[in-house]
Specification:
Number of domains: 2
CATH architecture of the largest domain: 2-Layer Sandwich
Strand order of the largest sheet: 1-5-6-11-10-9-7-8
Structural class: alpha+beta
CATH topology of the largest domain: BirA Bifunctional Protein, domain 2
CATH superfamily of the largest domain: Bira Bifunctional Protein, Domain 2
Radius of gyration: 28 Å
CATH class of the largest domain: Alpha Beta
Number of helices: 17
Largest sheet: 8 strands, mixed
Length: about 450
């Protein structure tokens, strides 16, 4: 009989390239960012909206722009039927605007505020803080053209960063004009850049006739040098855009938000008008944006609706968390303690197999009254259980052994003081409820 002695090859599955698992020890930072974001959004009158993770491909082509990098190279698009396709959303502004129009929200209440938190998808070259499946939290204020609304959105973003204690971020703003003044500057910029066409990178050479403003945002060093010698759009703004930009800048100073005017700041999506901004963090290197946004007064009309002013931003959650880790690690190396996750207040130590049933009943009784508690499911020794309690940093340990079981009582150890007390099992819940906030 032939016996196949070839060694079996074992395949270890890994997360797809450009995706990342958020493991429990890191989830505390994610939850903190989400909770702070929700609180700030709702404090300022924004309501949560959830849209599908995929949309009709035409929505993104029409809103983002056919000649943009996102539409040309970065979208995950799939055939839906013979004559239609769907695309995993590369951003959430267009889907929110689609929902606003589909449900005719402008007819019931023109001005509305939305926020969202969720995954987006782009075929980018994966790098630290930049993934193919990434997460954003953002807001959209729809139905008003007031420049003070632009300032409100910037202030919401900075308050989120302040509340998570992210130090060292920079607010950069610019105006990219409107349909009245931007064409004039586009022609001038194209003419000036054409004189340096051969020195531009291959991508920017193709942008000359398709999306010339994107050249100003190129990270190639030669392109950056050429761009910095180009005229500024601020010299070509119409009166309306100049007034709008001045109100934004004055109001930012009035409420104490420092900023830098970056004349070369543009956005990679065609729907932006007037105010554009980024919030950056130097610890992230060349791709340093943690938040980007601006005004898009023509987006609603571009996708088939009325002419309605809108403004919003998106915060990159992976990039923000990476910046926060960089800052905290440099400061005091305590980041790992911060991300260890929630710990129970009470740990129940079971001594002997016969006590486990009673320990489990006590565990669930305590939890019913919103006191966080846990116990050992591995059948380990009392010493090993106590080591776990110490590692978790619990406030109280309940010990139940054969002697306590026979007497109908338990031993409670207050970990901070090492004090030990004995209580009847029937009195344990009352004792905890009388303690000040035992679950915190």
């Amino acid at each position: 009989m032939n016996v196949n002695t070839a060694k079996k090859t074992e395949y270890v599955f890994k997360a797809p390239r450009g995706t990342e698992d958020v493991l429990p020890e890191k989830w505390a930072l994610w939850r903190k960012l989400e909770e702070v974001g929700r609180q700030e959004f709702e404090l300022c009158g924004y309501y949560e909206i959830r849209t599908p993770v995929f949309e009709d491909t035409r929505l993104f082509i029409r809103s983002i722009g056919e000649a943009t990098d996102i539409v040309e190279k970065e979208m995950y698009t799939f055939a839906d039927s013979e004559d239609s396709s769907i695309t995993l959303r590369p951003e959430s502004t267009a889907p929110v605007m689609r929902a606003y129009l589909e449900y005719e929200l402008h007819k019931t209440k023109k001005f509305q505020k939305f926020y969202y938190i969720g995954p987006q998808f782009r075929k980018e070259r994966p790098q630290a803080g930049r993934l193919r499946q990434f997460h954003q939290m953002g807001l959209e204020a729809v139905g008003a053209s007031d420049p003070l609304l632009d300032v409100e959105t910037i202030s919401v973003a900075t308050r989120i960063f302040d509340r998570i204690d992210l130090k060292g971020y920079t607010v950069k703003i610019n105006s990219i004009g409107c349909e009245k003044c931007r064409p004039v500057f586009r022609n001038i910029l194209k003419e000036k850049l054409s004189e340096h066409e051969k020195a531009l990178c291959e991508l920017c050479q193709s942008r000359l006739n398709r999306n010339v403003f994107r050249i100003l945002d190129c990270k190639n060093e030669k392109c950056k040098t050429i761009s910095h010698h180009m005229p500024s759009i601020n010299d070509y703004l119409c009166g309306e855009c100049q007034t709008h930009a001045k109100v934004v800048r004055d109001a930012l100073l009035e409420i104490g938000i420092p900023y830098i005017v970056d004349a070369h700041l543009v956005r990679g999506l065609d729907y932006y008008t007037k105010t554009v901004y980024e919030i950056t963090h130097s610890s992230l290197g060349a791709r340093d944006a943690i938040c980007a946004g601006g005004r898009y007064d023509n987006l609603i009309s571009d996708i088939g609706g009325p002419s309605i002013g809108s403004v919003g931003f998106a915060i990159g959650m992976e990039a923000t968390i990476l910046a926060l880790e960089n800052v905290t690690a440099k400061k005091n190396k305590l980041i790992h303690q911060e991300v260890c996750g929630p710990s129970p207040s009470v740990y129940i130590v079971s001594i002997g197999e016969e006590t486990r049933k009673q320990c489990f009943s006590l565990l669930n009784l305590i939890r019913k009254f919103n006191i966080s508690a846990d116990f050992d499911y591995e059948g380990r020794s009392p010493k090993a259980q106590m080591r776990t309690a110490n590692k978790l940093g619990v406030k109280y340990v309940i010990v139940l052994g054969p002697d306590e079981l026979a007497r109908g009582d338990v031993k409670i150890k207050i970990m901070e003081t090492s004090e030990e007390i004995s209580l009847k099992q029937s009195e344990v819940l009352k004792w905890f409820l009388n303690r000040q906030s035992p679950q915190t």
